[in-house]
Write a structure and sequence with these properties.
Largest sheet: 7 strands, mixed
Oligomer: single chain
CATH topology: Aminopeptidase
Distance between the termini: 35 Å
CATH class: Alpha Beta
Number of helices: 3
Number of domains: 1
CATH superfamily: Gcn5-related N-acetyltransferase (GNAT)
Strand order of the largest sheet: 1-2-3-4-5-7-6
Helix content: 25-40%
Structural class: alpha+beta
């Protein structure tokens, strides 16, 4: 069974930092064949959501507050599930966990993601709505999506 944890960067163990970056590299660089600057200076200030099963990091996302992304938005990014663990609903649990953190910490801020275009329906299931045209980000088609908020 997967367990999710929210951590600031300085609360992550060295082992978790290693596993977090290894999973991000495995998915974004190796699997998706995308060469990009993953370590972008935002991790130190981000909230990190780590999904662990049997002491192994199998899911990850980071939350950037409005100071790191845009004054009007909190954003969720680097959303990943280990390839071997996909199809078990962990992605939905991960996104719901992230939304819960944002609802608690920043209830008046809109939520924004830069979603890979082929995952549009996945994010629509969580209440995100496509904004604007498709664009390339690191050579992969993406779309901006914003989440409707009841209190905004």
């Amino acid at each position: 069974m997967i367990s999710f944890y929210e951590r600031n960067f300085n609360e992550l163990s060295l082992s978790m930092v290693h596993d977090m970056f290894a999973l991000r590299s495995q998915i974004f660089v190796v699997e998706q064949k995308c060469v990009y600057q993953d370590i972008d200076g935002k991790d130190k200030e981000a909230k990190h959501v780590i999904g662990v099963e049997k002491d192994k990091v199998i899911a990850y996302a980071r939350i950037l507050n409005f100071h790191l992304s845009n004054p009007k938005f909190v954003s969720i990014g680097r959303i990943i599930i280990s390839k071997k663990e996909r199809g078990k609903g962990y992605g939905h649990k991960l996104v719901d966990f992230c939304i819960g953190i944002i609802n608690k910490r920043w209830p008046t801020k809109k939520i924004k993601i830069s979603a890979q275009a082929h995952l549009k329906e996945f994010y629509e299931y969580h209440g995100f709505i496509k904004k604007g045209d498709e664009y390339l980000e690191d050579g992969i088609p993406h779309i901006e999506m914003n989440k409707k908020r009841k209190n905004l």
